[in-house]
Amino acid sequence: MKNKLVMYFFRVNRERRGRLFMTSAFIILTALIIHAIAGDDRMIIDTHDKRIQYTGRFDLSVTGESSFGWSASAVTIRYKGRSCAFLVKGDTDDNYVQIISDGIPGKALQVTQEGVRAGSPDLSDGEHVVTLFKRTEANQGILCLTGIELPAGTKLLDPPVRRRLIEFVGDSITCGYGNEAKRREDGFSPDIENAYLSYASVCARRLSADCVTVCFSGKGVIRDYSGSPVEPMTKLYGRVYPQKDARSSIHEPADVAVINLGTNDFAIGAPDTHAYVTAYTDLIAQIRKNNPDADIVIIDGPIMNNEWPFKGALTLFRTYRDKIIARCAEKGLGNITCCSLSTQGTLGYGADSHPSIAQHEKNGVELAGYIRKLKTWK
Q1: How far apart are CA 178 and CA 186, in angstroms?
Q2: What are phi and psi of 134, to 5 degrees?
Q3: Hey, what domains does the chain have and what are their CATH numbers?
Q4: pLDDT tens-digit series, residues 165-198
Q5: Could you give the CA distance from residue 199 to residue 161 in angstroms, rounded to a whole number?
């Protein structure tokens, strides 16, 4: 009887162990299937990886993070595989980005404080260049890239070779303020601001150049749209982004620097000639220090004209501009020229009477033609 009981318990335990093994195996297999379906089999690229190409001003002072604010700031990777995703969060819920896959722009994506996964579409298996592009301006908040996600088996390659670089310093016009609005009476909202369709980006693309912007709505050289002298562009130009008075962790000298400022300085009347010329010359000195070999181009348009903001405003601005160029020549600040863009009116308006997408396109083409001739670029 005792031997029969021992054999019984051995048989029961063996059956239980078998069932337990089968159950464990099933759980593990299920987990692996779920893991694969969920896409958890991936790798995260550190934001300080040298194979990431940054265009614009970025703060890399925090390990594993890259923070940025200015319009048109861009993060580009080149890889061999099918897809990728940028892990990005904001300090507000007011910023929008878009993914550009092999030169094709995607839809606007809102970035929240909780963070989003800005992914490329599922591309063919092969080599691709994908960019995360900031559509909104710095006054909408700062973004922080915390990683780039690649599926297992994807190979991150060296970044694409940069052919040319153009820096744009400006105000709401350069930001693309409200350019996707349907009517001039429409108020501003961040979802209708698109730096990718600003004259600056249009110009850069036509010249096979990358675009860096330092622009802020309402700002001028010595005062803002309301007349306040607090933090004009002469103060903001050197910052990694307006909210942080520090230098960018990344800097590449530009081939050309374009300045489109003056609309806000003149908005409430003519500024003092001496103060304006002095401040503008100081800004050019900063730009020259950042870009030692660049051609610097002062442009006007498309908002200011000889009827707005006051009679003869555009003519007066050009008089000031000529004095600025002469002062810069005296100070040895290098090659500085000027270009006038077509004023708006015939191609509709964006929000709050700002340039429309069609106006930006026209001005971008005009400026590209001027720069191409200036630089003798093919």
Answers
A1: 8
A2: -90, 115
A3: 43-157 (2.60.120.260), 165-375 (3.40.50.1110)
A4: 999 999 999 999 999 999 999 999 999 999 999 9
A5: 23
Residues 6+ apart with CB under 8 A from 136: 71, 94, 95, 96, 190, 193, 195
To which residue do tokens 């960019």 refer? 131
One-letter amino acid for residue 211 of the chain: C
Q: Is 67 helix (H, G, I), strand (E, B) or coil?
A: strand
- CA-closest candidate to residue 164, choices 288, 60, 260, 295: 295
Collect all residues with Cβ–Cβ distance below 8 Å to 177 and sequence separation of at least 6: 137, 188, 193, 217, 350, 351, 352, 354
Are the C-beta atoms of residues 331 and 281 closer than 8 Å to each other?
Answer: yes
- C-alpha span between 222 and 279 (Å, rounded): 7
Measured CA to CA, the distance from residue 209 to residue 163 in angstroms comes to 6
* Rounded CA separation 10/329 (Å): 99
User: Residue 16: is its pLDDT beyond 50?
Assistant: no
Residue 122: name the closest of 147, 155, 160, 151 by CA. 151
Which residue type occupies 114?
E
The C-alpha atoms of residue 90 and residue 94 are separated, in whole angstroms, by 8
CA-derived radius of gyration, the chain: 27
Local confidence band at 10 (pLDDT 50, 70, 90 cut-offs): very low
244-265 pLDDT per residue, tens: 999 999 999 999 999 999 999 9
Residue 92's contacts (CB-CB under 8 Å, 6 or more residues apart) are 113, 140, 141
80 touches 155 (CB < 8 A): yes
Query: What is the rounded CA–CA span in Å between residue 284 and residue 70?
Result: 19
Question: Which residue has tokens 């063919």?
Answer: 124
User: Distance between CA atoms of 107 and 120, rounded to whole angstroms?
Assistant: 11
Asked whether residue 376 carries a pLDDT value surpassing 50, the answer given is: yes
Residues 218/264, Cβ–Cβ less than 8 Å = yes
**CA 30/CA 312 separation, integer angstroms:** 76
pLDDT-based confidence at residue 41 (cuts at 50, 70, 90): confident
